[in-house]
Design brief:
Nucleoside Triphosphate Pyrophosphohydrolase
Length: 139
């Protein structure tokens, strides 16, 4: 399944949501979800961002894609998502969890690590990559 994630940076912080549904229920990751029929990657990222956080943004560009493999208790593959990351630029709003997010807030980059948070796979790597792109292209 192809899905998108909205990677939003604001004042040197990254926006994360705590997921309520599989894969990675209870873990922190980027707002995102499945791309609907006829929707572009960027449109899906902005829609999911708003649905899960009530934040409005512009899409800057696609910059990464990661595989998320979710296995059942028997070790058999249950889901295979390809998450396409979109760097988003904040326009308005403050994090307010909605849709399938349990919580939403901005984190300092130094706090975005497995030792500090229960984060989904590749969140730290993708967040740091987004920060480099932001600093090189938008700052």
């Amino acid at each position: 399944m192809v899905a998108t994630t909205a990677v939003l940076l604001k004042n040197g912080k990254v926006l994360l949501v705590r997921r309520s549904n599989p894969p990675d229920a209870g873990r922190w990751g980027f707002p995102g979800g499945k791309i609907e029929r006829g929707e572009t990657i960027e449109e899906a990222a902005l829609r999911e961002l708003y649905e899960e956080t009530h934040i409005t943004a512009n899409a800057h560009r696609v910059f990464n894609a990661v595989d998320v493999l979710d296995f059942d208790k028997r070790g058999e593959l249950e889901y295979h998502f390809v998450l396409v990351a979109v760097l988003c630029i904040w326009i308005s709003g403050e994090p307010l969890a909605g849709d399938d997010a349990l919580d939403a807030c901005f984190f300092n980059m130094d706090d975005v690590s497995e030792k500090n948070l229960a984060i989904s796979l590749d969140v730290e790597k993708v967040a740091r990559q987004a920060m480099v792109i932001y600093e090189n292209e938008l700052a």
